[in-house]
Amino acid sequence: MGTASTRLPEGRYGRSPDGRADDHRLKVLGAVLGAALLALIGYFAYHYVGKNEISAQVIAFQATDDSVRVHLEVHRDADVDGYCTLRSQSADGAEVGRADFRFTGPDTRVDKVVTIRTTAKGSTAELLGCHAG
């Protein structure tokens, strides 16, 4: 008669205690890296949204053969002067005009109609961006 072995077959019933320790280290490392990534995203979001001193939008526009009149609304901090760049494109997508609108003064809301001179009939009025300075 033979004797029965009391040892379990290797690799058959789960991992060894050392394998579980490695998994725990990986989980901790993943949590730390995930928290660092969230902190980095939060930092950039705060500086993009919180520090954005100027925002603007095109309310309406009216195109003629040689110009586009653009109704522009700008919101800004009271102590920030700057400019916004507008452009117009023709129906085929070619740029036909571009203009910068500069604003100064104490008003935090600027509501202005800007005229863009065009080389052909414009079909759009697009706000490219606003910058302090």
Short description:
The chain is 26% helix and 40% strand.
Describe this structure in words.
With 133 residues, this protein is an alpha+beta fold. Helix content is 26%, strand content 40%. The chain has one helix at residues 17-50, and strands at residues 54-63, 67-76, 82-89, 95-103, 109-117, 126-132. It has a 3-stranded antiparallel β-sheet, with no helix packed on it. Strands 4-3-6 form a 3-stranded antiparallel β-sheet, with no helix packed on it. Strand 3 (82-89) and strand 4 (95-103) form a beta hairpin. It is elongated. The N and C termini lie far apart (95 Å). The model has no long low-confidence stretch (mean pLDDT 85).
The residue fraction in helices comes out at 25-40%
Specify the biggest β-sheet.
Answer: 3 strands, antiparallel
Q: Find the structural class using helix and strand composition.
A: alpha+beta
Give the distance, in angstroms, between the N- and C-terminal Cα atoms.
95 Å
Strand content: 35-45%
Average pLDDT rating: 85
Strand order of the largest sheet: 1-2-5
**SSE string:** HEEEEEE
Number of helices: 1
The parts where pLDDT drops under 50 for at least 5 residues are: none
Overall outline:
elongated
Number of strands: 6
